[in-house]
Amino acid sequence: MRVPDHIHLRPDAIGCGACLPAAFLERGGRWLALHGTNSILRFTDDGRVDVPDERPDVMELLGTQFKAHPPSDHFAWRWWTMPIL
Question: What is the pTM of this model?
Fold first, then answer.
């Protein structure tokens, strides 16, 4: 599925500077990290997904960059009850 060009899923350098200033965090400001905010995904014309290293400043601020995960697969699980202490 191709994302339309008019939908911007990531801020540019100016927008990021306005919403995630390192000085704000260094002064004790808080930031709620949402799932997927540490990744830049670019959908290519051939249907693949590229993960460019376009914003090392943002990834350094976050401390991580998500690039991929293993393919979905079956896994073993079991129910358990946590004891009340």
Answer: 0.51
